[in-house]
Specification:
Number of helices: 9
Distance between the termini: 27 Å
CATH class: Alpha Beta
Number of domains: 1
Number of strands: 14
Order of helices and strands: EEEHEEHEEEHEHEEHHEEEHHH
Radius of gyration: 18 Å
CATH superfamily: Ribokinase
Strand content: 15-25%
CATH architecture: 3-Layer(aba) Sandwich
Shape: globular
Largest sheet: 8 strands, mixed
Length: 291
Amino acid sequence: MRVLNFGSLNYDYVYAVDHISLPGETLSSKSMKVYCGGKGLNQSVALARAGVHVYHAGTVGSDGDKLVSVSVDNEIDISLLRRIDEVSGHAIIQVDRSGQNSILLHGGANMLQTRDYVDKVLSHFNEGDIILLQNEINLLDYIITKSYERKLIIILNPSPYNSQLSECNLDMVSVFILNEIEGNYLTEESNPGNILEKMRKIYTNADIVLTLGDKGAYYMQGQEIYYQEAFRVVAVDTTGAGDTFTGYFVSGLIQGLTPAENLRRSAKAAAMAVSRSGATTSIPMSCEVDY
């Protein structure tokens, strides 16, 4: 079984602020730092640090040297990565004094995947291999369809939620990893129990992971539902915490952890990420999580 993450790579411009700016408000930041991130890269780093050999496919611009360097430093296989003469994706992130964030995303090169490139990437993977996807790149519907045709195991983190997802055949997804907001969009339910029940009815063949931030996480596998409380930490920056959970959870599926073990390990890794600044820089190594 091989693991492909087809996803975004971004530069994150992180501004420390007293509070998230309001409409019409001009707000001075206390500091500004630049990190490498993007949901795709974050999740690949988490997979790699959790002990999984992961191939990352996606597109960076001519300014993408640092994104490539971070991938190499984390032993992510970038043999399928594509570079073009455009600007890389980037995000403007406000982090308030409680660690909560607000993110403005510019897709850049992430939104310039081509069908020929998708076909070339997928030709390296076969039945039983895993593909992990998010919603920060274009052609997501095409990637899902072609992955399903090749009988890959499709794991989807439908974030950020937007109209592109309505174009995708989500019946092809084997595992959803989503939060309350995405769960609400997919089911029109707000209560976690109702979200899980509705997801079971709509996507009868999929396993569901529902993350609830400081309220913990659920994993619905068939008729079984498992719950894990959140680990209590002082929040410094929540950026990348969900991606850390996702990467570690997928690694647990590959490494054969029980559902309870996998939830606990993933929640612990996410809690450690919350207690640190940045996206990829906040993701813990497996030796820290498993200590």
